[in-house]
Amino acid sequence: MEGKVLETIRNYNLIDEGDQVVIGVSGGPDSMALLYILLDIKKVIPFNIYVAHVNHGVRGEAANKDEEFVRNICKDLNFPFYSIKVNMYEYAKDHNMTGEEAGRKLRYDFFKKVLKKHGRGKIAVAHNKNDQAETLIMRFMRGTGIDGLKGIPYKRGNIIRPLLEINRDEIEAYIGENKIDTRLDKTNLEPIYNRNKIRLELMPYIEENFNPNIVDTLARFSKLMSIDSQFLDKLTKEAYIKVVKKRGKDSIILDRGKFSLLHMSMKQRLIRNALEEIQGNLQGFTENHINSIIKLFSQGDTGKAINLIHNIIAKISYGDLIIEKGRLLERKDYFYKLNINGSTYIEELDCYLKTKVISKEKCEINFKNRFIKYFDYDMISNCLYIRNRRNGDRFSPIGMKGTKKLKDFFIDEKVSKEERDSIPLVVAGEDIIWVLGYRISEKYKITEKTKNIIIIEKQKIY
Fold it and tell me: What is the largest CA-CA distance in the chain?
């Protein structure tokens, strides 16, 4: 297997002679295999190895034992060892992220910090061919474009994935043949997360009933999409140079005439380029944002503008199409009555709010999705509505006695001023029962006395 990984490293230029390589090691089979394989490859391509381990603080003593296990391995192999203990779910809550997003950010931030200590080099992580297949299926189900379908890259910046050509069976065989000790995270064997369900339930079902080689099939598909994506990126850069009239730190001005002649696919990619150039990334921007900008640029008149997230504005000025950071546009208030046991379309948010009343005994609660919440239906005596904030709004966040100003709640949750008007509120009469994406009301939470539950879910339109 070492030869196969060495070939991947050479084909994709993952490691150069003399590199400082930080290896993320959890103690599981994948990362332990990566560690020992790179130890062998180090004899062919001289480079330095450092091991970094993140204790996510969610598995108690088991996580502490994982950390100690990796520490001892590094002591035996005489590798520098770095570790950090974090609280993944607390970080997720503080930064309005899912636990998975928070864990990923904390890991890579730590790995980058370790690498910076030793100079330029690479961060090696243990994603394998099965991870690639699972990622593609997750993206299929969420809805993604060609850039998403290229899957996990072999190399992005200084992050490398030498095991992407290796499947999980090969890794387990390597671990067994070389008698390498590993640690088992038992949560990986439980179908409690979407990725685990795909790995433990969906993939075996596909292999048994449709395609026994689905992992290899998806890996090939990923490479094909990557080739097409690279070609489109090249065309986009060429078109971008022609269409951009002026660029500054906080604004991009496009030529409306030239933009209008482009194919829709190229228009979407150009808009993403402009947004990424202004903001530094595309975090938070959805397909709906991109399409709303294109619609404005294609159909709008001079002076028309739309307010996007992160205080970014798209507007038209005669022959110019402008995307810039700027002052917030005047907000538009909205107020909709929710259909109980049905769906309500919210035009300003371009989404549906779906509600369902069910007995407590029949309700299976999913605490992982922050856009699905559960309330004591019998406590709700008024009709339910959705609206944006008003002056004087007060809220009783779950876990708190009494109320506080909604403004103070947003400050506590580190919500920027620019975003506060866009956050929807579900209300019963004058009571705010849910600040969407954040917390529910203490007054309407489910208790032991609850008999009927109303489920409220925000659903995107794809």
Answer: 73
Residues 11 and 119 in one domain: yes
β 20-24/121-124 pair status? parallel
Domain shared by 268 and 213, yes or no: no
Angstrom distance (rounded) from CA 316 to CA 323? 9
Query: What total number of domains does the chain contain?
Result: 3
Alpha-carbon distance of 371 to 369, in angstroms, equals: 5
Q: Is the pTM of the predicted complex or chain greater than 0.85? A: no
Structural domain of 209: 2-223
Residue 384 DSSP one-character state: E
The one-letter amino acid code at 118 reads H
**CA pair distance 393, 100, nearest whole angstrom:** 32
431 CB contacts (<8 Å, ≥6 apart)? Answer: 382, 441, 443, 444
Examine the pLDDT at 137 and tell me if it is beyond 70.
yes
Lowest average pLDDT, out of 138-147, 167-176, 355-364, goes to 138-147
Do 48 and 170 fall into the same domain? yes
Please, are residues 51 and 35 in contact by the beta-carbon 8 Å criterion?
yes
Residues 6 or more apart whose Cβ sits within 8 Å of residue 397: 404, 409, 439, 440, 441, 442
- What does the CA dihedral 59, 64, 70, 71 come to, rounded to 10 degrees? 160
Q: What does the block give as tokens for 410?
A: 């947003």
How long, in residues, is the chain? 462
